[in-house]
Design a protein that fits this description.
Elements (H helix, E strand, L loop, with lengths): L11 H10 L4 E8 L4 H10 L5 E6 L8 E4 L7 H13 L2 H7 L1 H10 L6 E5 L4 H8 L4 E5 L11 H18 L5 E4 L2 H11 L4 E2 L19 E8 L7 H7 L6 E8 L3 H11 L5 E4 L7 H5 L4 E4 L6 H4 L4 H8 L3 E4 L3 H10 L2 E3 L5 H9 L3 H14 L5 H15 L1
Parallel strand pairs: 1-2, 1-4, 2-3, 4-5, 5-6, 6-7, 8-9, 8-11, 9-10, 11-12, 12-13
Helix pairs in contact: 9-15
Length: 396
């Protein structure tokens, strides 16, 4: 995906940005596996037509017109983990951060380079980005609300909650600009740290798909993503016990946790309507989802980030032109009601989501799929990319 995909929708000033970038250098840093990180890959695809774009992160190089710097994060032994835990408990947060092997590796590989702009993905990359910037502007993109990412876990709060709060308090005011994924998280960063954030949704490019037809006798539900225990995916298996035989559920999951994946398969084994299908490449997700009828996501708000979740999959459901069925997660529910493309349960109980799905017939599902087709014209990265380009233009 190259930048010229974004230009037809861009204003003349954005077209000019491309010309201005020819002599600029941009560094994108993310301590994640770049080629499978949707939000970072959208940044890469947006800016790859810029000469001298460098991306630093884990994994193999993505297929893009960039220079890729692979960062090393070797597994830590028990002694090293004990030292790090001691630093976190004692509040030696700076010493902990600058001792991390991935940070030290990035300093070694990039310390002599100069960039006109650095994009730091999440608070974990911001101190490093500011050190590498040497006075150039740094754009901070927050994928989560880091200080409360897993605040439902006591040990995480004790160690990493305090640490992330310290990094945010110390470094966020030094960023030249900040973006994040939804309004609730933007509001919390502003309230807690006094830093304004612009919202760029986790929406893919407009996939130019059409809604598929609905079979009244077989309404197909789909959930996709990663098999992550903290997402409590089993509640959607429980939900199926309260739906009649018209409904089926497919899980398309990346097996990030083999033990949890096995538990999900075992829990679903008694219901032949529940299947597990092979995941597809990130760029093919919406095309695969388009074969289904309803994208379903029930995410109990066990921590701050789950409460304010507005994930990739929500926008991928819409870009796949599906009806959407969710729990009362406020960020998702606000957009779903605005565009009228699905149903929202009254609570996060499996029976509550089943109750609103059970009322749907083929005509209602088709109507919601048509509403998603309209919403997809607005909830896409053509629009989000323009916001990102505007920020980069202002900073460079």
């Amino acid at each position: 995906m190259a930048l010229d995909q974004f230009l037809p929708l861009a204003q003349p000033s954005y077209r000019l940005i491309v010309d201005l970038y020819i002599l600029k250098s941009v560094l994108i840093i993310s301590f994640s596996t770049i080629h499978s990180d949707p939000r970072v890959m959208r940044q890469v695809c947006l800016l790859e037509s810029v000469q001298q774009v460098t991306v630093a992160g884990y994994g193999r190089a993505p297929e893009a017109n960039i220079e890729f710097v692979t960062l090393d994060k070797p597994p830590a032994g028990m002694l090293q983990k004990g030292i790090w835990a001691g630093k976190l408990l004692l509040g030696a947060f700076e010493s902990y951060y600058w001792s991390l092997p991935q940070v030290r590796d990035a300093q070694r590989l990039l310390g002599e380079c100069r960039f006109d702009l650095i994009v730091a993905n999440d608070i974990s990359a911001l101190p490093l980005a500011l050190a590498l910037a040497k006075g150039s502007p740094v754009l901070m993109d927050a994928h989560e609300y880091s200080p409360r990412e897993f605040d439902d876990k006591l040990l995480w709060k004790l160690l990493f909650g305090r640490y992330h709060h310290d990094l945010c308090k110390r470094y966020l005011p030094r960023a030249a600009a900040m973006t994040t994924v939804c309004q609730g998280i933007a509001d919390e960063y502003k309230r807690e740290y006094g830093v304004p954030c612009k919202v760029i949704h986790n929406a893919p490019l407009d996939q130019k798909l059409l809604p598929s037809s609905v079979d009244a006798g077989c309404i197909r539900l789909i959930h996709h993503g990663s098999a992550i225990r903290s997402r409590h995916l089993g509640v959607m298996i429980e939900m199926m016990a309260h739906l009649d035989e018209r409904f089926t559920l497919d899980f398309m999951l990346v097996e990030t946790d083999k033990v949890y994946m096995a538990e999900l398969r075992a829990a679903a084994k008694a219901d032949p309507r529940i299947c597990f299908i092979e995941p597809v490449a990130m760029q093919n997700i919406c095309q695969r989802l388009n074969e289904f009828d309803i994208g379903v996501y029930l995410l109990p708000p066990v921590n701050f980030n789950h409460e304010h979740a507005l994930p990739n999959k929500f926008f991928e459901f819409i870009q796949a032109r599906l009806a959407v069925a969710i729990g009362p997660s406020p960020e998702m529910a606000t957009l779903l009601r605005q565009y009228g493309c699905g149903v929202v349960a009254e609570s996060f109980e499996p029976r509550a989501l089943a109750a609103v799905i059970q009322q749907l017939d083929a005509a209602a599902v088709s109507s919601f799929k048509q509403a998603s087709n309209v919403a997809a014209q607005e909830l896409n990265y053509e629009r989000g990319g323009q916001l990102m380009l505007a920020e980069v233009e202002r900073l460079v």
